[in-house]
Specification:
This protein has about 400 residues and is of the alpha/beta class. The chain contains 9 helices and 17 strands.
C-alpha cells in the first residue's frame, strides 16, 4: 500500500463506445437497446482527438497524482488489444490500443495507473446475465461460469503483463458475488505493487464508497476491515461517462467533499467522461482546474496522523510532528476560530490557502465550559476571500 498512501487524489476516467450516443455509460441496459444495435457503436468509434498527454497535463494541473481508467465497462467493449474477444478497440475505425497509449504516457511521468475492469459483461455469452442489478438478460443456454472466469483471468493476465508496471486493479460489479482467491493471487503474482479494491473476488486492500456516501460511514479509514478507503465521485450529476446535456456539480461541492475525505486519511478519485472524439468536456476540465487551484497549496496538509483533537466536530485535524493542520471542510461562518481544548501557544499560525500569517490569542471562552482556561483562538481569517475550505497550519511546541 506504500504508493497508495502517498498518492491521495486521483483522476477517474470512464470512456468507451457509450460516448457515441452520449447519454449514459449504461445506455445499453437502462434504455433496453438491442444488442446488435448497440454493437454498431464499435463500428463508429474513432476518437481522433484523443491525446493521453493532454489528459495527464490536465490531471497534473489539477494536482492529481494517479489515474484510474475503465479498460472494460459493463458493455464488454475492451479498450485494449485483447486476444480474447473481437469486441475491442483494435476492431474499431480507430484501431489503436488506448490502454497502451495511456500506460506509455503514465510511465513517462512516473504517474501510477489503476485499471478498472467490470465483472459484469453484457456482451460475453458465457456471463450469466439473468436480469439482476446492472445486468441484462441473455441466453441461459450459453451461460458458463467457469468459461467466463477463464476469460476474465486471461484478460487480467493481458492487462498485468502487456503494459509495464500497473499500480492497481479496480473491480466493479461482481453481481454474482463470486469468491475465487486465485484471481487476486494472479494479480499479486504478476504485479506485486498493485492494490486491489473491495469489489472483486475476495478481500481487497481498500473500500470504494461512491457518490454521496457519508464520509462518517462504515467505509471511512478502511471500514469493514479495510486498511484504506478510496472515495469516488463524478463531475457529472447524471452519469460517469460522457453525456451530451450533462448537469455538473459545483467546484465548491468537490472542494468540501475532497477535503472531508482526505483529511480523514482516505484517497479520492474525481471522475470525468471524455466525449466520442477523446476530448474531456470543457466544463469538466474547468472543474478539475478550479479544484486544483484550491488543492495544490494545501497538499502538504493531508499527510500525517489523522486525529480528533478538537471539540468542534466540524473541524478535522492532521498532525505531522510539531505541525498541526486544522481543516474546515464546511467553511467558516466568521473570521475567528476557537480551537478548544487547545491551550498551548503556537510558534506560528499560517493560512495555508494563501500563505498569510494569522494572529492568535489565548483567552477564556465566555460561552462554553472552558471559562477558566485560556483557549487558543485564531483571528482575522479572511473568510470572504476564501474560494474553498480553509486549512490552518499551526507550528506547536514539542
Amino acid at each position: 500500500m506504500t504508493w497508495f498512501k502517498q498518492k491521495r487524489l486521483g483522476l477517474f476516467v470512464h470512456w468507451g463506445i457509450y460516448a457515441i450516443p452520449a447519454v449514459h455509460e449504461q445506455y445499453w441496459q437502462r434504455w433496453d437497446i438491442p444488442a446488435d444495435e448497440y454493437a454498431k457503436f464499435a463500428d463508429e468509434f474513432n476518437p481522433t482527438q484523443f491525446n493521453p498527454a493532454q489528459w495527464l497535463d490536465l490531471a497534473q494541473e489539477a494536482g492529481m497524482e494517479y489515474l484510474c481508467f475503465t479498460t472494460k465497462h459493463h458493455d464488454g467493449f475492451c479498450m485494449w488489444d485483447t486476444a480474447h474477444t473481437d469486441f475491442n478497440v483494435m476492431n474499431s475505425p480507430y484501431g489503436k490500443d488506448i490502454v497502451g497509449m495511456l500506460a506509455e504516457e503514465c510511465h513517462k511521468r512516473d504517474f501510477p495507473l489503476e485499471l478498472y475492469y467490470s465483472v459484469v459483461d453484457w456482451h460475453h455469452p458465457a456471463y450469466p446475465n439473468i436480469g439482476r442489478h446492472h445486468e441484462i438478460v441473455t441466453d441461459p443456454a450459453r451461460h458458463d461460469q467457469a468459461a467466463y472466469l477463464e476469460f476474465l483471468k486471461a484478460q487480467i493476465t493481458e492487462l498485468c503483463t502487456h503494459y509495464g508496471t500497473i499500480h492497481g486493479i479496480w473491480w466493479d460489479m461482481n453481481v454474482p458475488e463470486w469468491k475465487d482467491p486465485s484471481v487476486h493471487e494472479l494479480i499479486r503474482e504478476l504485479q506485486p505493487q498493485a492494490v486491489i479494491n473491495n469489489r472483486g473476488f475476495g478481500e481487497g486492500d481498500f473500500a470504494t464508497p461512491e457518490r454521496d456516501f457519508d464520509p462518517e460511514g462504515a467505509n471511512v479509514h478502511g471500514g469493514k476491515g479495510y486498511r484504506m478507503t478510496e472515495a469516488c465521485q463524478s463531475v457529472g450529476v447524471n452519469s460517469w461517462g460522457y453525456r451530451r446535456d450533462e448537469d455538473y456539480f459545483s467546484s465548491a461541492y468537490f472542494k468540501e467533499n475532497i477535503d472531508s475525505w482526505l483529511a480523514k486519511g482516505c484517497n479520492y478519485l474525481l471522475n470525468v467522461g471524455p466525449d466520442a472524439t477523446g476530448l474531456i468536456p470543457d466544463q469538466a476540465a474547468a472543474i478539475l482546474r478550479n479544484v486544483g487551484g484550491w488543492f495544490k497549496p494545501l497538499r502538504e496538509s493531508f499527510d500525517g496522523k489523522h486525529e480528533k483533537l478538537l471539540d468542534d466536530g466540524r473541524l478535522l485535524t492532521v498532525r505531522d510532528g510539531d505541525i498541526l493542520y486544522v481543516h474546515c471542510p464546511a467553511g467558516l461562518s466568521s473570521s475567528t476560530l476557537s480551537l478548544a481544548p487547545l491551550t498551548a501557544e503556537p510558534a506560528s499560525v499560517t493560512l495555508l490557502n494563501d500563505g498569510r500569517t494569522l494572529p492568535w490569542t489565548r483567552e477564556p471562552l465566555v460561552y462554553n465550559r472552558h471559562l477558566n482556561q485560556k483557549i487558543l483562538r485564531i483571528r482575522e481569517i479572511p473568510v470572504d476571500e476564501l474560494t474553498g475550505p480553509a486549512v490552518i497550519r499551526l507550528r506547536m511546541p514539542s
